[in-house]
Amino acid sequence: MTDNRKTPIEIDKDEFKAIGHQLIDAIADFIDRIDEKPVTTGESPKQIQNLLSRRSLPKNGSSVSALLSKTTDLLLNHSLLNGHPKFLGYITSSAAPIGALADLLAASVNPNVGAQILSPMATEIEKQTVKWLAEFIGVSPNYGGLLVSGGNVANFTAFLAARTAKAPKNVKEDGISGAPSKLVVYCSKTTHTWVEKAAILFGLGSKSIRWIQTDEANKIDNGILVKTIQNDLEKGHQPIMVIGTAGDVSTGVVDDLKTMASVCKTYDLWFHIDGAYGIPAAVIPELKNLFEGIKEADSIALDPHKWLYSPLEAGCTLVKNPKHLLDTYSTHPDYYNFSTPAEDLVQNYYEYGLQNSRGFRALKVWLTLQQVGRSGYVEMISQDIELSKFFFKQARIHPELEAITQNLSITTLRYIPVGFAKDSENKETYLNELNKALLNQLQEGGEVFLSNAIVNEKCCLRGCIVNFRTSKKDIEEIVEIIVREGRKMHIKLQTQRIE
Ligand SMILES: *Cc1c(COP(=O)(O)O)cnc(C)c1O
Fold this sequence. Notes:
It is a single chain. This protein is α/β, with parallel strands linked by helices. The chain has 14 helices and eleven strands. The strands form two sheets. The chain has a seven-stranded mixed β-sheet, with helices on both faces. The chain is globular, with a radius of gyration of 25 Å. The relative contact order is 0.13. Pyridoxal-5'-phosphate binds at residues 91, 150-152, 192, 194, 245, 249, 274, 276-277, 303, 315.
């Protein structure tokens, strides 16, 4: 070995600067002109595959400069742009530009936020981020928790803490199968699919989920919830947790969390809130009532990569008494020389969740929270909601659109052809077919990206505005695009029928 080892992976300082500057220039232009691009290029998977060529793993390395300029082109010109002002699909936000810089910085220092000794500054930043997120939504800053990959894992992390807390004490040694009675959990039928995954993965089984009916406002029916719990108790089952949703994924409805919290108190159940989408709206003073009860939650899942506009991935689990996370996740193998002093000065995040080695997700969230401040978030989230209401209103007054629901920043609507006989036979079947075809057409067209929702068996178009780039003009244009494409699709379907 020579004294000066030269490896194919190191980049020398001047080259790093030159290539880095080029990359940053390309990204700055991309962000600046994102509204001039189509939301999607409409390229087929085949066309995309062809851009990569089918060669196998290269034997020899290549120049960093060539690699990065080619890859910049691949990604900037052949991606779906959820940072586009007319992207209103699913619940994926435009990403805060500071997040891109944060990820670059985080990857450069590369702290392993699994153990404090490996990430002294990053651990403190993550702690502060968690505390600020608790303050942000208005629960006690004494909630503890950690950053995770997203809403699913945030919910899983809490689900397992609830299981440890409420299942028989020997569950860690004997497993779920050793429990004398069946463990059951409760949630509304609108709850996101994570709960099924959790029940399957963590040993309860999908039949342990009690899907509670919703009321006319689409909130969990708390009367039925109580009856179901009583019924399970009579049968000798063991209820462990109730899951409330703060902003359901289809239509944005927030459950009556206050009543749910008191039900949990009565029956000594863990109260978890899935706030992956909606809970950041609790920052808005006028919406305080809607979120009453969140302070009672034993755990809360939220998703900075949704309505806090963080780049993917960033989810967060908050737990009222963080000791439950330690009870669930802490182990002390003899190959770790990580102290756990009694005072909570040292926090080793591997003891708080599923991951061992952990990246520095908190940095982008921490920086954005400071760049924007509470008041900046109040402004952006309020505007998203105002725009959603505007979208709903435009749909309501348009003769060819039917406004269906509007909650938080989600609007659902559908296209109804002018002069369409309201009492015609198979009306609903045809409207469902028409609106499904219309949605596909809109998604492929690349002018706007909406997603779908089924509301009372009606296939709807759905716009969710977690997008600080969307403006009133975008909404007006989106309405025009929907109507224009709706008319075309109706004619196309009618012609097909006649042929
Ligand atoms: C998005 C969402 C999830 C899942 O979050 P991911 O970040 O996609 O894993 C769970 N629950 C609700 C209510 C959501 O909106």
